[in-house]
Design brief:
The structure is a single chain. The chain has helices at residues 16-32, 71-78, 84-98, 117-134, 194-204, 219-223, 231-240, 253-257, 279-288, 292-298, 314-323; strands at residues 38-40, 48-49, 59-66, 102-112, 137-145, 155-166, 180-185, 243-248, 266-271, 303-309, 328-336, 339-343. α3 (84-98) packs parallel to α4. The protein is built from eleven helices and twelve strands. Helices cover 33% and strands 24% of the residues. It is of the alpha+beta class. The mean pLDDT is 95. It is globular and about 75 Å long. Strands 8-10-7-11-9-12 form a six-stranded mixed sheet. A hairpin with a 7-residue loop joins β1 and β2.
C-alpha cells in the first residue's frame, strides 16, 4: 500500500510543537530555582553545573533517583496533579541529605501518551516548587510523548538529583551506642505504601471525592498531601555539629530504614508512646485491620526523618530543628544488638 499524502509525526501522535511550547511555559519556574553553580539549563543537549561556582573545594558527588509509585494513580484519577512533582523531588533530595550531601540540581523524566499542555505545566511547576524549597536547581529534563504506551490521561514520572559534599564529611559517621534518635514528623503518608492505601480505600467503599474520615478535605486531596522536604533543616542540623546519621523513612518504615544508618552490631530502641499516630494512619490501620508491626514496616507512621545525634548535642539540635519549623520527637536511643526494638504502643 502506498500512501500518497506523506504522514507527519503529529499524525502519528507526537506533537513536537506542543513539547516546545511546554518548555517555554516552564522556563520561568525553572529560572526561579537557579542557584550558584548553574551555568546552562533548559534547552541544550545537556545541563552544565560548576562545582567551584557552588563553593566546593574538594567535592564528592552524590546521586539519587526515585519516583512516586502508585500515588500517581490518585493524582491522575482526581486530576489533582499540582503537588505530585513535590513528591518526586522530595523522594530524591531527602535521600541525598542522608548521605550528608547538599542537593545541587535536579532532572525530571515525564512520559505520557498524549501531551496535555495544561496538566504537564502544572506537574512541572510542582517539580520546580519542590526544587526551589530545597535549594536545588531544576536544570533539565525529558518530556516523552509516546502514543500507544499509556492510556488516555496516564503519565509517569521519574526524578534524578545530584548533590555534593566536601570530601571526608559523608554520613553516617561515628554512630555509637547511646546516640539519641530524634524523629521529624511527616506530613502524612508521603510516597510509599500506596498500593496498599488504594486497596484499603477500595475496601472502605469510599471514592476520592468523598469526605475524608480523618481530615477536613476530600479523601483524594488528603492522601495527595505532598512528601515533606527536610533538606534545609537537616543540612542546618548537620552543619551545627553532632549529627552522626540521618534516615529517610520511606518504604520499609522505621523497621527497615533506621538500620541502614547503623553500624554492624548496633540497633535501636524506640518508644512508640513518644508520639501520637496521625489520624490518616489510624484510619488506614482500622480499615485494613493492620497489625502494628505491619504499619511500622509499611508506612512512616508519622515520622518522616530520623536524626542520629550525639547525646551531648541532642538538646541543641532539637532546638535548632524546632526553630526551623519541625515537630521533633525524641524516639529513643542507639543500642547494642542489631535491629529495631519497640516498646509501648502506637496510639
Amino acid at each position: 500500500m502506498t500512501i500518497k499524502n506523506g504522514l507527519t509525526y503529529a499524525e502519528a501522535g507526537v506533537d513536537i510543537d506542543a513539547g516546545n511550547t511546554l518548555v517555554e511555559r516552564i522556563k520561568p519556574a525553572a529560572k526561579r530555582t537557579a542557584r550558584p553553580g548553574v551555568m546552562a539549563g533548559l534547552g541544550g543537549f545537556g545541563a552544565l553545573f560548576d562545582l567551584k561556582g557552588a563553593g566546593y573545594e574538594d567535592p564528592v558527588l552524590v546521586a539519587a533517583t526515585d519516583g512516586v509509585g502508585t500515588k500517581l494513580r490518585i493524582a491522575i484519577d482526581t486530576g489533582n496533579v499540582d503537588t505530585i512533582g513535590i513528591d518526586l523531588v522530595a523522594m530524591c533530595v531527602n535521600d541525598l541529605v542522608c548521605q550528608g550531601a547538599e542537593p545541587l540540581f535536579f532532572l525530571d523524566y515525564f512520559a505520557t501518551g498524549k501531551l496535555e499542555l495544561d496538566a504537564a505545566t502544572r506537574i512541572i511547576n510542582g517539580i520546580a516548587a519542590g526544587c526551589e524549597a530545597s535549594g536545588c536547581a531544576l536544570i533539565g529534563g525529558e518530556t516523552a510523548e509516546m502514543p500507544g504506551m499509556y492510556h488516555d490521561g496516564d503519565f509517569d514520572l521519574a526524578g534524578f538529583a545530584v548533590g555534593a559534599m566536601e570530601r571526608g564529611v559523608d554520613l553516617p559517621r561515628d554512630v555509637a551506642a547511646g546516640d539519641v534518635l530524634l524523629g521529624l514528623a511527616s506530613d502524612g503518608v508521603h510516597s510509599n505504601g500506596y498500593s496498599l492505601v488504594r486497596r484499603i480505600v477500595d475496601l472502605s467503599g469510599l471514592g476520592w471525592g468523598d469526605d475524608a474520615p480523618f481530615a477536613d478535605s476530600t479523601l483524594g486531596a488528603a492522601l495527595l498531601a505532598p512528601t515533606r522536604l527536610y533538606v534545609k533543616q537537616a543540612l542546618a542540623a548537620v552543619r551545627a555539629g553532632g549529627v552522626h546519621g540521618l534516615a529517610h523513612i520511606t518504604g520499609g518504615g522505621l523497621t527497615e530504614n533506621l538500620p541502614r544508618v547503623l553500624p554492624e552490631g548496633l540497633g535501636a530502641d524506640i518508644d512508640l508512646n513518644a508520639w501520637t499516630l496521625p489520624p490518616v494512619f489510624r484510619w488506614l490501620a482500622d480499615q485494613g485491620g493492620m497489625a502494628e508491626a505491619e504499619m511500622l514496616k509499611t508506612f512512616n507512621a508519622g515520622i518522616g526523618m530520623v536524626l542520629v545525634v550525639a547525646p551531648d548535642r541532642a538538646e541543641a539540635v532539637a532546638a535548632l530543628l524546632l526553630e526551623a519549623g519541625e515537630s521533633v520527637v525524641p524516639l529513643g536511643t542507639v543500642t547494642w544488638g542489631e535491629g529495631v526494638r519497640y516498646s509501648g504502643q502506637l496510639v
